[in-house]
Amino acid sequence: MATPWMACAAALPAALALAVMPAGQGRGAPAGPAGTAGAAAPAHTPPHGALAPSAGPVRVVATTSIGADLARHVCADVPGITVMALMGPGVDPHIYRPTVRDVRALADADVVVAHGLLLEGRMEDLWPKLQRRGISVVVLSDAATAGDDPHIWMDASMWAAAARRTGEALAAQIPDRADAIRASAAQVATRWMELDAQVRKAVATIPPKRRMLVTAHDAFGHFGAAYGLDVRGVQGLSTEAETGLADLRALVDEIVERQVPAVFHETSVPDRAIDALVESAASRGHALRNAAALHSDALGPPGSGADTYEGMMRSNVRAIVEALGGDASAMAESTR
After folding, report:
1. pLDDT tens, the chain, 336 aa long
2. What pTM does this model have?
3. Do both 206 and 296 map to the same domain?
4. CATH code of 169's domain
5. N or C: which end of the chain has fewer CB within 10 A?
6. Does 24 map to a domain?
7. SS3 271
8. Distance from the first to the final alpha carbon of the chain
């Protein structure tokens, strides 16, 4: 029986044939008869895979809403670039199954922005195929020392590095706008570093014994490492992982011993495991609150206040710091 993934993978060759120029031609180069390259190269031929100045809008396709937000910020002051996301707000990328329409969008892109480290699962099998056809694939986790954890946006300094990497990839793809793209990426990176400093200041106000962040799955490892919290995910790095009873008991023991007042569910992950923690702690006489939902693998819907990366980070940090007994005033809305 064919699986949805098999159907999508089978659609890729046809989608590429329709949407992508023959390898070596360059996305912006004119085609000759029967789809062959033009007889004479222009005087200023762009680098292989780059778009000629006369090419139409540059199509950037990001796998997730978070990646798309990064690309939009990097391209904000540069005309002629469109950005779309395959996954919308609140979608868990760990269990997302790409559609044939998604594959066609990837095949029609000039640049694909992905996370890597299996955040997108088997969709990553497509990246080498797209690259062989001249489509640039930016793997954001390559911008930082991420280990096996793809959630690098949880560390704003890593996300600043990802902005610079995205800017370099787009600059190489669009040489005639390279300076503007690099300048925009540098501004974004600076803004994320300012955010990084604010997060550090806010988290430092949490009483040391309570600096324990318990979430539905282990998406906050980079956040904890960067900002000084012990992070415990009820599930592993993937939301498809299971939790054993012995692990749950050990986690409740630590919560009770450290008098942690709150745990957090996530907007893109069912909160059954978090509810079980709260009930188990209550049976031990410890009042544990299931605090505000955190945004982990996806942005919030439009108008939620977490519909951009910066908004998501500010919303998460305010919820974490206040629930654990700290002062979140450093996370006031940005005036920029």
Report:
1. 444 444 555 555 555 554 444 433 434 333 333 333 333 333 333 445 566 554 578 999 999 999 999 999 999 989 999 999 999 998 889 889 899 999 999 999 999 999 999 999 889 999 999 999 999 999 999 998 879 999 999 999 999 999 999 999 999 988 999 999 999 999 999 999 999 999 999 999 999 999 999 998 788 999 999 999 999 988 753 444 455 677 888 889 999 999 999 999 888 676 788 888 899 999 999 999 999 889 988 999 999 999 999 999 999 999 999 999 999 999 986 645
2. 0.82
3. yes
4. 3.40.50.1980
5. N
6. no
7. coil
8. 53
Contact 301, 316 (CB under 8 A): no
CA 126 to chain centre: 18
Domain that residue 188 falls in: 55-192
How many whole angstroms separate alpha carbon 51 and alpha carbon 45? 9
The DSSP string of 27-68 is: TTSPB-GGGPBPSS--TTPPPTTPPPTT---EEEEESSHHHH
186 and 269 assigned to the same domain: no
- Whether 304 maps to a domain, the answer reads yes
> Residue type at 15?
A
